[in-house]
Amino acid sequence: MPEVAAARKIRLKVNGVAHEALVEPRTTLADFLRGGLALTGTHVGCEHGVCGACAVLVDGTAVRSCLMLAVQADGAELMTVEGLAESDGKLHPIQEAFVEEHGLQCGFCTPGFLIAIYELLESDPSPSEEAIRDVLGGQMCRCTGYQSILRAVHSAAAKLGAARSASATPGA
Ligand code: FES
Ligand code: FES
C-alpha cells in the first residue's frame, strides 16, 4: 500500500476568521476550503488551472486554489467569495453589478470572476478596457456571454468610485 504522508498542522485566516487544521500534504487549497471549512462558494471546474472558477485571494493576490496545496497557505490571509458580502448579507458592489447587468446565468463560474475582478479593482480602480478584458480572458464562462460581465465590471468600478468619493466628502 502507498505510504500516506503525515498530516500537518496549518494556521490561516479566511474571511477574517482564524483557523487551525490538520491537513494531508496532498490536499489542495480548494478541497480544504470546500471540505475542511465548508466554504463551498469556491467552485472546482477543471482542476488544472484553466477555468478560474476556484480563484481565491491569498494575501491579496488571486490564485487558483486547485493548483495550490493547503499546506502552502499556512500563515496566509485568504478571502473567498463568501468574504465579499457584508455580515448583514448586503452584497458587495461587484456582486450588485453582476445582478443588475445579468453577469451570470448558471453561476458556476461566478465566484472566480468576482474574486478576479475584486483583485483588479483593488489594484486599479479605473481599469482600461484592455486591462478588464485581460482579466476576464483568464476566467471561463460557458453560458452568460462576456458582454454582460464586461458591463458588470464597468458598473462595479463606477459604484466603487462613487462610494469612495462619498466617503471622502466631509459630511457625506
Ligand atoms: S478548477 Fe481551478 S482553474 Fe479550474
Ligand atoms: S454563468 Fe454559467 S458558466 Fe458562467
Structural class: alpha+beta
Number of strands: 5
Radius of gyration: 17 Å
Helix percentage range:
25-40%
Q: Alpha-carbon distance between the termini?
A: 66 Å
Q: What is the name of the CATH superfamily of the largest domain?
A: Beta-grasp domain
Oligomer kind: single chain
* Beta content: 5-15%
Which CATH first-tier class of the largest domain would you pick? Alpha Beta
> How do the strands line up in the largest sheet?
2-1-5-3-4
The major beta sheet can be summarized as: 5 strands, mixed
Shape: globular
Q: For the residues shown, what is the average pLDDT?
A: 96
Which architecture name of the largest domain does CATH use?
A: Roll
CATH level-3 fold name of the largest domain: Ubiquitin-like (UB roll)
Hetero compounds = FE2/S2 (inorganic) cluster
Task: Flag low-confidence runs.
Answer: none
Number of domains: 2
Provide structural commentary.
By secondary structure, the chain is of the alpha+beta class. The protein folds into 2 domains: 8-83, Beta-grasp domain (Ubiquitin-like (UB roll)); 93-166, DNA polymerase, domain 1. Helices cover 35% and strands 15% of the residues. It is built from 5 helices and 5 strands. The chain has a 5-stranded mixed beta sheet, with helices on both faces. Helix 2 packs across helix 5 (146-168). The longest helix is centred in the last third of the chain and has 23 residues, at 146-168. The termini are far apart. The model has no long low-confidence stretch (mean pLDDT 96).
